[in-house]
Specification:
The chain has nine helices and no strands. The protein is globular, with a radius of gyration of 20 Å. Helix 2 packs antiparallel against helix 3 and helix 3 runs antiparallel to helix 4. It is an all-alpha fold and about 260 residues long. The longest helix has about 40 residues.
């Protein structure tokens, strides 16, 4: 049976580096087309899980579609990674978004998944459908960056924030429409309606209008994505500063 941080959950967590290393070793000397096909196939596998859960109960209740739309922040990665893998030309904003969001957010979900414990076996579609796609989203994102991107600028991180705000706003509007139309009273894509298991959000949300039936957790999620990108950009800049200083020192030594 699944339970957070039991042997089943830890095994899924350990599966992450195993898949990452294996795919890297298999693909590192392959052609660009082969790498793209394999990584895109992983994204399609994720999409299969997402659309399965959206449609699995449609014959019994057509409204169930709206409870499992593939529009949560992590689910959107199937579209973002597909565009990144297939699009040619400059992808500066897309690459930065993948570095700041697609690599790390799915990994966070793998570590702290919202799955009811002692209810599902490790091979249950619920457990596999939550953990395996999120592992693959992050792994594909890392390998895409390693194989296709030489450098990601630390500048214009505000563009990622703007895009996340647009995504959060869109999801909140969808949530509002689903909740107040009665199509899905429990709609909560990206926690803009309620915090779910993210209990740390509660106290902050109260000071940002969560009691308002239209605002709910919208503002606290905007604050969260903004702080997330700012912190990661600081880390990004720090790593880049250390890296280039090291190169500069080595170059100076060689000259002397």
């Amino acid at each position: 049976m699944y339970r957070i941080f039991n042997i089943v959950h830890i095994s899924y967590i350990l599966l992450y580096p195993v898949i990452l290393v294996l795919l890297f070793l298999i693909l590192r000397n392959r052609t660009h087309i082969t790498k793209t096909i394999v990584l895109f196939s992983c994204v399609l596998l994720c999409a299969g899980f997402e659309f399965y859960f959206m449609l699995v109960n449609v014959l019994y209740n057509w409204k169930s579609i709206f409870a499992n739309l593939p529009i949560a922040l992590c689910d959107l990665n199937m579209f973002i990674l597909s565009i990144a893998l297939l699009k040619k030309g400059k992808k500066e904003l897309l690459n930065k978004y993948i570095l700041y969001v697609t690599v790390l957010v799915p990994l966070f979900v793998v570590i702290r998944p919202e799955i009811r414990p002692d209810l599902y076996t490790w091979y249950s579609p619920i457990v596999m459908g939550k953990l395996l796609p999120h592992i693959l989203y992050s792994v594909v994102a890392i390998l895409y960056l390693l194989f296709n991107v030489k450098h990601i600028s630390t500048k214009k991180s505000y563009e990622v924030i703007i895009n996340l705000i647009l995504i959060t706003t869109t999801l909140h509007i969808i949530n509002m429409a689903l909740v107040y139309s009665g199509l899905c009273p429990g709609a909560n894509y990206f926690y803009t309606i309620s915090e779910g298991n993210l209990t740390w959000v509660t106290n902050i949300a109260r000071h940002l209008g969560s009691n308002n039936k239209f605002i709910r957790n919208y503002l606290v999620m905007i604050l969260t994505v903004t702080c997330w990108v700012i912190v990661l950009n600081i880390i990004h800049r720090t790593i880049e500063y250390i890296y280039y200083n090291k190169i500069k020192k080595n170059h100076t030594k060689q000259i002397n």
